[in-house]
Amino acid sequence: MSPLLKAANDVSLKKKTLIFFVLNFLLAIVATACLLYIFVQHSGETTKSIHALVCVILFLLLSVQAAALIYFKSNIIQPLAEIQAASRLMADGHLETLNHIKRADEIGSLGENINDLAVNTQEVLLFVWNHSQITRKLLENIAGDLNFSLDTEQSDSLIKSGIQKDISTMHRNNENLKSIVMSFSYFEIKLKDEKMVSDYQQEPGATPS
Predict the structure, then answer these.
(1) How far apart are CA 44 and CA 21, in angstroms?
(2) How confident is the model over 108-143, as pLDDT tens digits?
């Protein structure tokens, strides 16, 4: 996150929401006070009845504000927090951590878009991994034709020709690329012992297909 964006978001969404409802409640109190002032100026009711009416109105306002705050927290803040946690794990390489928010609104759409991004990223990484496997075999075949080993522990001083050094460098770069791809966690897939194996876990009680 850029310093400017971080500075603009020092206050969390939860605090911003609380501030909004507090200001909204204060505005409602001011509006109620103004209405009561007008009512008192044009009414002959006793002070006791006026105080009771003020208490009832303030209680109703507080109840509505509290209900609105609870609704907003359960339907906006909590789902966004779940999406934020899942997207953070995805950014750390855990592509198997998908959002499980099923809603027909913008938050549900956001969760689906993040899931699609994780799946597409997984497909790209697996595509790179497959091609790195093919590249490795090709390099091993070329090294065999040139009668030298691609063992990473072999000293560079034993490699004489320039083409051998280039092939060895390509092999090391290819292995480094594979290591990066294998450092990710994938959805229903595992890269283990140079092989791609299924990691599908069926839900308890589900009937095998």
Answers:
(1) 34
(2) 888 888 888 888 988 999 898 888 888 888 888 888
Give DSSP secondary structure letters for 169-180.
Answer: HHHHHHHHHHHH
pLDDT band, very low/low/confident/very high, at 43 (cuts 50, 70, 90): low
Report long-range pairs for 195-202 (Cβ below 8 Å, ≥24 apart).
196/126, 196/129, 196/130, 199/96
Residue with tokens 């109703």: 60
What's the pTM value of the predicted model, to 2 decimals?
0.63
Tell me phi and psi for residue 148, to 5 degrees. Answer: -145, 160
Tokens for 127? Answer: 């595509």
Strand partners, 91: none
Q: Are 105 and 132 in contact (CB under 8 A)?
A: no
Q: Angle between the 47-72 and 13-41 helix axes, to the nearest 10 degrees?
A: 160
For helices 78-91 and 106-145, give the axis angle rounded to 10 degrees.
Answer: 10
Domain ranges of the chain: 10-91, 106-198
The enclosing H or E element of 190 equals strand 189-192
